[in-house]
Specification:
Strand content of chain A: 5-15%
Order of helices and strands of chain B: EHEHEHEHEH
Shape of chain A: globular
Oligomer: heterodimer
Radius of gyration of chain A: 24 Å
Largest sheet of chain A: 5 strands, parallel
Number of helices of chain B: 5
Largest sheet of chain B: 5 strands, parallel
Structural class of chain A: alpha/beta
CATH topology of chain A: TIM Barrel
Number of strands of chain B: 5
Distance between the termini of chain B: 17 Å
Structural class of chain B: alpha/beta
Strand order of the largest sheet of chain B: 2-1-3-4-5
CATH superfamily of chain A: Methylmalonyl-CoA mutase
Helix content of chain A: 40-55%
Order of helices and strands of chain A: HHEEHEHHEHEHHEHHHEHHEHEHHHHHHH
Number of domains of chain A: 1
Distance between the termini of chain A: 47 Å
Number of domains of chain B: 1
Chain lengths: ~550, ~130
């Protein structure tokens, strides 16, 4: 990109400048002996063409919407349409969550994102002993199609896109969503949305696994195959670095481990006989936007470039849509503080801006009270307004990848890419992501511990926690509370549904689930048949548990 | 003669899978010279109490981020009492609203550590309050 004689001149000039710099630092020492990013990349005083002297514009950046997609996945990005503003919501019963969804849509939100409670995520009905105390706490409780119908009451599923944070039982919840949309009068092919469906990161760091890896990977491949034929607009998986980062990883580990998980899913599907271009275009990703603003922007750019190379070079994908890494972003929950919670509004705004400058396709902004409880209506509104300010008021969406070409951003993007390949090679050498779960857990834990030590010894500043604390603080008053009666009401509703259905039919449908599980058939059509007759999530997952057994976590500590 | 090392069970009750905090605390206690056993995820109160007795611990530290603390923390304390193990110091942490803390203390949770608590503070608290 640069002429050699110009670079030589600059090298000579920089030597003189360095002497000047040393004198300045000697007179007045810098704030830190060494500056570095969250991923441990050393940050120099200034960046120049010398730092990206090897860069080849065509090869490394390209134009937006073109390989290797460093600058973005569409040619005009937000000049056409802004990202989808998608606030993750769900708590209590289906009625309460339905009200929150409708409130968010009325306020200008453009897509839904559904949180399920932990029993639902782990495939237990609300009457299971392990569901005690957990019903409706971190999301909505869904036992049967009846709950799903209430959840989307008066929300036309053929017109709104919905992202569902559901992993181990993703196939069953997808079946319920399809059944619900059909009941509303829409065709399967009209629905649009995402299921998270990323079980490997559940083993690594999020914890809502059910089955061992092998049957889990099979169910995931079943979903890829079914959706490619029946619901072509559906994002069949959201390969997630978000939770890896929340568990304490660095930015480099976040993208490396996520893309390594992506490789494992593509491998499994190809081994199951699918053509990489039949499902590749529907793979989507989910990343964290953390506080280290410029490194985060570079992270998104590096992730796009690495994934494009993986799909084209490693898997031989031919369809350009298979090469593009499309992603959702959520601002970093772990960066929020319980102390001086209003300050979280600023943190979230900067993180959201990093996601937009990094080219995200959809975005969730956290609410300021989330280190204390689930967000209340007021806090979730400010979070949504933050996105609207970025989208409509500050001009950053009028041009594609405005920081592309910055010597620092490009250097960081390159260095993050190098670190990502190092990790991917290491994970390959361990036999792939599924075999490297322990390794990734150890790496994440070490980073988490170092992060906490840096806060405790004040090498890292957290406003309100280790600096600028206030003696007397007033905490927000209208924190959202999910009361325990939700559990009782949910169990009563489940009992009523069970009493009102054709139980002989339920038994035969459960038998069909078992037989499909024992064969190598695609499970999704069987799930759809079952949920339509109000067979419960817990009943279906119970059969899968019996057939496949359960995953036992290795305790890495 | 060297002092007896404090034994701690770090536990994750309920279905919540967020164990960053539990593992960071476990490591800090270990680095402070305590013997630490980590239960892993999805432990019922019964499993936690049985591990506490079997491992003969002085302290049980529990972490929940799902909001189920109001149900699960007191159950562990009650079961420990039933087994005559009320000399075990029980502490908790996680996303726990201020308003819930008095009821938890009433139920026998000695201390609740919220987000932002320095590791050193937890170590000090345990050293000063462990019962034997």
């Amino acid at each position: 990109m640069f002429k050699q004689d110009q670079l030589d001149k600059l090298t000579a000039k920089k030597e003189g400048w360095s002497a000047k710099l040393d004198a300045t630092v000697k007179k007045r020492p810098e704030r830190e002996p060494q500056f570095s990013t969250d991923s441990g990349i050393v940050v120099n005083t200034v960046y120049t063409p010398l730092d990206i002297a090897d860069m080849d514009y065509e090869r490394d950046l390209g134009l937006p919407g073109e390989y290797p997609y460093t600058r973005g996945v569409q040619p005009n990005m937000y000049r056409g349409r802004l990202w989808t503003m998608r606030q993750y919501a769900g708590f209590g019963s289906a009625e309460e969550t339905n009200q929150r969804f409708r409130y968010l849509l009325e306020q200008g939100q453009t897509g839904l994102s559904c949180a399920f409670d932990l029993p639902t995520q782990i495939g237990y009905d609300s009457d299971h002993p392990l569901a005690k105390g957990e019903i409706g706490k971190v999301g909505v409780a869904i036992d049967t199609l009846a709950d799903m119908e209430t959840l989307f009451d008066q929300i036309p599923l053929g017109k709104v896109s919905t992202s569902m944070t559901i992993n181990a039982p993703a196939g069953v919840l997808l079946a319920m969503y399809i059944a619900c949309a059909e009941k509303q009068g829409f065709k399967k092919s009209e629905i649009n949305g995402t299921i998270q469906n990323d079980v490997i990161k559940e083993y690594i760091c999020r914890g809502t696994y059910i089955l061992p890896p092998e049957p889990s990977m099979r169910l995931i491949s079943n979903i890829f195959e079914y959706c490619s034929k029946e619901i072509p607009q559906w994002n069949t998986i959201s390969i997630s670095g978000y939770h890896i980062r929340e568990a304490g990883s660095t930015a480099a580990q976040e993208i490396a481990f996520t893309l390594a998980d992506g490789i494992a899913y593509v491998d499994a599907a190809v081994k199951a006989g699918l053509d990489v271009d039949s499902f590749g275009p529907r793979l989507s990703f989910f990343f964290n936007a953390h506080l280290n603003f410029l490194e985060e922007i570079a992270k998104f750019r590096a992730a796009r470039r690495v994934w494009a190379k993986i799909m084209r070079e490693r898997f031989g994908a031919k369809d350009p849509r298979s090469w593009t890494l499309r992603f959702h972003t959520q601002t970093a929950g772990c960066s929020l503080t319980a102390q001086q919670p209003m300050v979280n509004i600023m943190r979230t705004a900067f993180e959201a801006l990093a996601a937009v400058l990094g080219g995200t396709q959809s975005l969730h902004t956290n609410s300021y009270d989330e280190a204390l409880a689930l967000p209340c209506d007021e806090s979730v509104l400010i979070a949504l307004r933050t996105q609207q300010v970025i989208g409509y008021e500050i001009g950053v969406c009028d041009v594609v990848d405005p920081l592309g070409g910055s010597y620092y951003i490009e250097s960081l993007t390159n260095q993050l890419e190098d670190k990502t390949w190092e990790y991917i090679n290491k994970i390959d050498s361990l036999g792939g992501a599924v075999k490297a779960i322990d390794y990734m857990q150890k790496e994440i834990h070490n980073s988490a511990y170092q992060y906490q030590l840096a806060i405790d010894n004040k090498r890292k500043t957290v406003i309100g926690v280790n600096r600028f604390q206030m003696k007397e603080e007033e905490l927000p008053k209208n924190l959202l509370k999910v009361d325990l009666s939700v559990g009782e009401r949910q169990v009563a509703k489940l009992n009523k549904v069970k009493a009102g259905r054709d139980n002989a039919k339920v038994q035969s449908l459960l038998k069909a689930v078992r037989e499909a599980a024992q064969s190598d058939a695609n499970m999704i059509p069987v799930f759809i048949d079952a949920v339509k007759e109000y067979v419960s999530l817990g009943e279906i997952c119970g059969v899968l548990r019996e057939v496949f057994g359960e995953y036992k976590q290795q305790i890495v500590f | 003669m060297s002092e007896k090392r404090i034994r701690v069970l770090v536990a994750k009750p309920g279905l919540d899978g967020h164990d960053r905090g539990a593992k960071v605390i476990a490591q800090a206690l270990r680095d402070a010279g305590m013997e630490v056993i980590y239960t892993g995820l999805r432990q019922t109160p019964e499993q936690i109490v049985s591990a506490a007795l079997q491992e003969d611990v002085d302290v049980v530290g529990m972490s929940i981020l799902s909001g189920a603390h109001g149900t699960l923390f007191p159950e562990v304390v009650n079961l420990l009492r039933e087994k005559g193990a009320d000399d075990i110091l029980v502490v908790g942490g996680g996303i726990i609203p201020e308003d819930d803390i008095p009821a938890l203390k009433q139920a026998g949770i000695a201390e609740v550590f919220g987000p932002g608590t320095p590791l050193e503070y937890v170590v000090k608290y345990i050293k000063e309050n462990v019962k034997n």
